[in-house]
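W.,

You were right to be curious about this one. When I first looked at the sequence I had no strong expectations either way, so I just let the prediction run and decided to look at it fresh. Below is the sequence, 458 residues in total, followed by the output.
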Amino acid sequence: MTRLGEATAAALPDTVSRPGYDRAAQRIGIVHLGLGAFHRAHQAVYTDDAMAAGDRDWGIAAASLRSGGVHDQMAPQDGLYTVTERSSEGEAVRLIGAIRDVIVAARTPERLARRLAAPETRIVTLTVTEKGYWRRPDGATDMAGIVADGNSIYHYLGAAVVARHAAGLDPLTLVSCDNLPDNGRVLRGGVAAFLDHQGEAAARDWFERDWRCPNTMVDRIVPAVTDADRARVEAVLGMRDEAAVITEPYRQWVIEDDFAGDRPRWEIGGAQFVADVAPYETAKLRMLNGAHSALAYLGLERGHEFVHQAVADPMIRPVVERLMRAEAATSFTAAPGQALEPYADALLARFANVTLEHRLSQIASDGSQKVGPRWLSSLAAHGGDAPATLTALAAWLRFIRTGNDASPDPRRAELAGLWAEGDAASVVDALFGAGGSMVGQWQPTEAQRAALVRKIEQ
């Protein structure tokens, strides 16, 4: 079967939308760290829209930090791939041309370093998941872990600050697109701490003064692509696309309007530039992501595979609805005009999209990094009086106990060890009791501790 690429793209059927610009005429202006399906369905699409509207020189050099899998999918296709939006109304397929270079940092770190230090680079975007920021349970930067890892985002970004400072180049804007509260501030703190650790005082001062790290909120459901998905895309395209992405029609990007230099007009694709991202970020983390995690752990426990199955379960849906509407939505102050009830309605409708096979196991990965911003912050805001959130937290703790977590989690061995050494009460104490490893965000009262233990054991 013919493979998608520059030489074959002209043969795509007319039903496939094409980039509305000359790819060859676009220089690279953005470096992206964490090349995966979400970036290809989100930031790259917004950038594609901006270039189609006339913006120039915002091509993307996208890097995977470790795995070469996505590189090996995309490089033979000249960075081209398709995005298929699925809904009950059908499918829409689009060819995306924004990614011009694909890098595996672990294979060729010098290539990534050159891109980050290039004069034409103005923005770095990141989707490295929560664990890529190397935060300790108390929120501080885990410098020991960063140094031991040797291939973190901070190694590359810190080197870029030093190189650009030495060369007298312009500062960059670093745009975190991961599900962390205050993601831009977290990123800024980590880079500054790394530069301190390296003894780069002058570069650190320049970074703090002139570089920008805006907070953002991103939203689009992007399930992992299966072989069956690729076969279906191949039938539509008449050629093979190994880097195909499947997603929903909905997308959202809210960005703090704080840039060191110019930027693409991402608003053409619907991005919102605001003074304060926090209410949008909190709604997404606690309502969407919090509900997703609850669906994952409760749904897997009841034998479900996909989100749409779990949200249709009459034993699960009431818990998730209460978590979203009565607990998460009331745990913070919304922005003016931010309507949370319609937002909850829209989320439930998105979860029920049967054409999008979003695996619960995908959402369940890295739970130790997710439960804090998704659940514990909401519990803290309610003084622990949030029974649906406690039910979800108990499901996560049972999930760890039963060994169902086949996905990566940086604290998996530690958490499994707690269960191996004790019972539900001792695990709760080790995590949330006085001196517990997760107590910085929420510490239960004795009654709440007892309630959580009962929920775990039910």
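Here's what jumped out at me. The chain is about 45% helix and 10% strand. And, maybe more interesting for your project: The chain has a mean pLDDT of 95.

Coffee later to discuss?

I.
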